[in-house]
Amino acid sequence: MGSRESNRLQNGGIGSEEASPPCLFVIIGATGDLTARKIAPALYNLVHENMLSDRVAVLGVARHPRSDEQFRQEMGQAIATHSRSQPVDEGLWNQFAKRWHFQVADAGDENSYRTLSARIKELDERYKTGGNRVFYLAIIPEAFPGVIHSLGVAGLNRPGGGGAFARVVVEKPFGTDLSSARELDALLLGNFSENQVYRIDHYLGKETVQNLIALRFANAIFEPLFNRQYVDHVQITTAETAGMEGRRGAYYEASGALRDMVQSHMLQMLALTAMEVPSRIDGTSIRNEKVKVLQCIAPLTPDEVASRTIRGQYAAGPAGPGYRQELGVSPESMIETYVAATLYVDNWRWAGVPFRLRTGKRLSSKTSHIQIVFKREPMSLFQEMGCDARGPNQLTVRIFPTEGISVTIDGKVPGPGMLLRPVRMDFDYGSTFGSASPEAYEHLLLDAIQGDSTLFIRDDEVEASWRIIDNIRSSWNMAGMPKLVMYPAGSSGPDEAQSLMNDPYKRWHPI
Ligand code: BG6
């Protein structure tokens, strides 16, 4: 990408007037959960919002055959269940559905990928896509190598015409550790070039996560405070009520919270919070700054891992059975469903400021937010008036359930005397802009079709993140390390998480 890249953060966002280029959107793994829950509803909503060219067609690919008509019916049901805009506009879907097709193909059988290639050419011509193609790999990680290899063998790694594009969108997890991530990258980059590869982290498609960039770099009031002089610590939380719904247990057994959430979403949020001012608001500049933050997170010694991280697992509790009773989970599983960790970004801006991360499944509520907690005033003038039990000044970026930004300060309680109380100033997306935010996948699918990789992850970011995760995991595997702690399903996580910080000011805020 050049220094004058065009991107959605500059061009007016998903609501801009620009139509998408024509293309064939090929979903490999079209019968899976992700297609039903996220990809199909996102494509429908893009059409609903008039964001897709009517020369965008969809080809679902999977190993078990079905007719175009069956596939359309399945997707219609998925959209009716999972679309954010309800009720679904039947007329609109029936029109769009005519451009949805299905092709059976098995990556283990190169011939079937040649047949796939022929079908793609036929659809290119029918829809006048100009040979533009996006391949979305909505498949389990074990299937990646076969599919990527077969795409290459069938020549589908090359665009279908002069001036056209062929892009591949890869879902997380990008490997399970640094070395497997490198292998995956070698495979990808053996068949595609880096600028064809779009590594998705759906958190970057969330409106408020992007708004963090606006908050920090479009406003002069906060940026001077974002450093070790004024920030006491940062808390980043993603709590979920969900456990291993459906078929997730088997995947999670090979992953755990550290690899599933911290390696990707949590470290990306940390990087956006801590990064330096980019030279421009474009993909290269933003990713250059994010990767520097990740590289500044120094490896932890085993003692530091013992004192700065907690891993937990949900046991039976008010919200239901324990993790070990879930489908596809070993009854003796030692996999963590909760992680709390304190990391430090060792650079001039942030030296000594704890970045506290916590994430867990089957907690008491679903919430995601970033809290920047500021230092106390140098001395308290109000203590002698009995006002010393006040909350910290805090900037909160709310990602879920309500998207917005809040500033918490101390204010005077009306009436005689001087009584102070924390008060909150809220900016709320829904009420300010009067419309529901698009789903993260809508942003990201449109970006992939438009060729804007700003909100996708670069290979060096993936590597830097895995280095941090592998470092923690290798200490966890050592003898004498604090063991997994249990917490009741439906609680706010293990009590031990609080003990990661002695200073009460730095304790976790309630979920
Ligand atoms: C996914 C993880 O990437 O993010 C899931 O694999 C997790 O385990 C999900 O539930 C959380 O996403 P969101 O958008 O619901 O916070």
Can you walk through the features of this model?
- With 511 residues, the chain is of the alpha/beta class.
- Helix content is 34%, strand content 19%.
- The chain contains 15 helices and 15 strands.
- It has helices at residues 8-11, 33-48, 68-82, 90-97, 110-127, 144-153, 178-191, 207-217, 248-253, 256-274, 283-295, 302-308, 429-433, 440-450, 459-476, and strands at 23-28, 56-62, 100-104, 133-137, 166-170, 197-199, 231-239, 309-315, 338-344, 354-360, 367-374, 394-400, 404-412, 420-428, 485-488.
- The strands form 2 sheets. It has a 9-stranded mixed β-sheet. It has a 6-stranded parallel β-sheet with strand order 3-2-1-4-5-6.
- Strand 1, helix 2 (33-48) and strand 2 form a beta-alpha-beta unit.
- Helix 10 (256-274) packs across helix 15.
- The longest helix has 19 residues, at 256-274.
- Bound molecules: 6-O-phosphono-beta-D-glucopyranose.
- 6-O-phosphono-beta-D-glucopyranose (BG6) is lined by residues 238, 240, 242, 260, 368.
Describe, in short, the structure shown.
The protein contains 15 helices and 15 strands.
